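Lab notebook page, bench 4
Experiment: in silico fold of construct C2
Operator: M.H.
Input chain length: 368 residues
Purpose: comparison with the prior construct
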Amino acid sequence: MTNNQVTLFGVGDVSPIHEPIGAYSALIRSTLAAADIRFCAAERPYSDRGTAQPWGAAEKPVSPSMASIFTDCGFDVVSVASNHTMDWGAEALLDTIHILRKRGIKVIGAGEDLEEACQPAFVECKGVKTAFLSFCSVIREGCEAGSNKPGIAPLRAHSRYESNYQPGVPPRIITVPYEDDLAAMKKHIASAKQKSDVVVLSLHWGVPFIPRLIASYQPIVAEAAFAAGADIILGHHAHVPKAVGVYSGKVCFYSLGNFIITSNFLGGDPLKISAFEQENGIKIDPDYPLLPYGQDAKRSLISKAVLSRKGIERVSFLPLLLDKQIRPEQLRSDDARFRDNLEFMEWVSEYFPHKFAIDGDEVVVSPP
């Protein structure tokens, strides 16, 4: 790789709530060290303060000391545009931003007001300037940032329901992005593109847990973002890897899956687990009690992009598997688990334009 090429790694949701924090990165630290820039999404707020919001947060803010997970992995840019960011109010959000910045990490996706929430973070490396932006679609009412209000950068969607003529058949759910939110996102992308060589867009969006389900608003947003100047989309929130699509030569990772995250939200209660499984049409893996998001929640990806002043020159992904201690491990191409994960990614991406090719321990993504 020449000196004017930069390697960007992107991963999905991070925020474990169980100790020991220092153990989670043990199997992946050397892999991450090979990148020039590392990005992730923070799922939860980090604070000793805050007020529980009316919807009833399932879990309290994470202790600030546990933010060491981000420096353990060497993340340079972190999105805090999550549906849980505001679970404990503005105080906990602002604490999270402060805690990450104190660790030398650039923060995107939320802020003291709408202007800060939508502000890009710029990273210059080897003469290549990269802009990072983040927006959230799975956002509760009142959690969006305003002109004088802390919150999340919004990219909301309307839902409508088309009934089926056959009684008892579920209605079709149609989603479209808010026009104002979409226009604002496009404006911020175009502005960032004027000031950088590459624009990376992070989106906390989509339908959780169900591997093949992509909401109808998501391809609309992806194509609009690429037309406005985004060069790659890194999706998260779904807690399972989802489709990879290539639009006009640009790659959208609809969901990178979980990277390092644990949860107690079902509390091991058999009745809660059964209800959750029925509601989402999935099965909880009993071998992963700290990862109660379905049997495919242990699958994960690292997106890899080679950047230059000309833009993005190459996109690939590194298949991962989380072990029972929720430690992500890079899979090698001679490992049967690598092939299994690749088959899974082909399955979830079946109806989206893409071509996958194995190159060493990576899967190169290109147009079909």
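Observations: The first strand starts at residue 6 and ends at 15. Residues 179-194 form the longest helix (16 residues).
Next step: discuss at group meeting.
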